[in-house]
Amino acid sequence: MTRHTHQNIALSTKLTVGVALVATTLLALLPFFKIGFCNIDDLEYFITAQSTWNDWQADHLRYARYSGRFYFLITKYFYYIPYLIDSFAYTKTVQYITLLACYALFAYLVGRGLQSQPAAVLTLLMLVAYTTITPDFYFMPTTNYPFYFTFSLILFMYGILLYFNYQRSGGRWRLWLMGAALFASCLFYEVYVLLTGLFAVAIALQHWRTKGLTDALRSRNMWQELAPTVGSVLLYCGCYFGYRAWLAAAVPNSAVYTGTLFASSFSGSNFVKVLMDLTRVNLPGQVYAYNTDLVAANSQLIAGHRNGLLPILTHASSSVRIGALLQCALLWWLGGRTSLRNISWRRLGVAATVAVVLAFAVHIPLAISEKYNSEWFGAVRCYVTSFFSYFGVMLGIVIAFTATIKAVGLTKWQCPLRAAWCAALLATSVVTSYSNEHIGREWVKSQNRFTAIDLMAREGYFDTLPDNAILYLHEFNTTSPTAYSLTSDTVRKLLERYINFRAKREISSTVDSQRLAEMISTNPDAPVYYLHAVESHSNCELLMAIAKLDSMPANTDSALSTSHADVFYLSPNKEFVVIYTVSGHTQMLPVSAERNSKITHFAIDGTGLDPRSILISNMTDNNI
Fold this sequence. Notes:
The chain has 23 helices and nine strands. The chain has helices spanning 3-29, 40-49, 53-67, 72-75, 88-114, 117-129, 148-169, 172-186, 190-211, 213-218, 220-250, 268-280, 286-290, 292-297, 309-315, 318-335, 338-341, 345-361, 364-367, 384-408, 414-458, 489-503, 513-522, and strands spanning 470-472, 508-510, 528-536, 542-548, 562-570, 575-582, 585-592, 599-616, 622-623.
């Protein structure tokens, strides 16, 4: 076989592997593309991003002073970048381009560290295969905080890459650029300060191993390499504590965010629990194990959802099974790569140490803080740091696979072992994607509320409300069985801001019955508009009916009465029957709407109409 033929085969193999990686990545991320706002922070950042420069300034000053974090004065603007354009497609593009860039850069660094291109491909494969959606607010950035943390992680990893390039090609400028990148990443989150410090320790240990302790301490080269990393940490700490001291003097007796205070009653058991819990969520299949009830509630299976590996494998969607089979094919091919088996045990040991440290150490700032030693945090299973920990856990899986392949070599156990790994990947990947589909459907239902408001504003509905009207959104926070709660005072204000932003006018609204009573007592002549909402569990359909009440009963659970209701039905179904009650009698109204409209808008009239009785007959699995 000629050299030219070998080159053609190698190119063909690379193209095949590349296409398979792209295909499985798209299939793995498929449940993510319809997910919108998943926590109050993102909602606030969106509203602020669409505001004025003065609002931006006030926002970053408020955050910096409240949290005691000087870096918000510099980097808070980065939260707004994915929301600069009021476009769902733009936000999703920014979010997943930077997420995949994180994956690719981390995989490249692993390949450089292990001196194996297949190791890089294997790392990328694992990162994609186990990307997870959770119903918790703070597991990001697969659902939350688009761009901010992914961009900052890219900065940090770019600093590490500069160090690798310095070791290979020299150039002191690379060291100082590395220091700038590491310091810049520290301005986004305290975890990077910890990681930069650990990286400095790794540099010192490397010199100690190669030169001995005495010669390492005398080595000018070691101190040149340490200067940018240690300098970054010291500069950050100086700015951080200097700002806290200034803040205490400038604003005495001001409340400080408890997440940035050391725990007053530190507990060693809680410390270990935080590290374990926030890391465990990244284990393959763990999110499904945590949320079997939620998955069952969102199942689209006619026979219902059944727990167990076999029912999931047989009832998973075609895209899930195809993606898993592609992943297994890639894993089988990687298991036969010579350069993967030839990685030295020493490099594998170093990589395993990095994996363990990265998986657990990133939670230390949380575990020693006042906020996360509270009872509230005991129920939280994942947080922002779980995102960073994810890379450590996936690196651990890569090391485990590589070590077992290397241990058996070319013996008769090679093929059975590779088959066992592929079977394990098939099962856990399908379970992961299956839970992603169902949990993702929950977040789609959350987004439906905002989509409906957007479409109502586009149709000009809010223009028809009187200036003194009160919009009571009592059921707006009860349609979804989990996750996105809209009951807190902070969220109420943000929801009102969102409605006013879309309506381009000031509308008084509330989700709280006590506040409603206060608003009515202040303005007894104000008309009250009641929002009735019904949502289907599995099909992600949302019915919203808004009606001006004839009178507001003292007990909001009592029957309501109106003569006119505007109904908005967010569903691809355009042929349906509406059921409602007028003066105690059930009525039915067949509706046939335009198929090119995303939301169906129609009106129901009748004296004594109870707006809470309105229901679409097709919504058989609704949450009433």
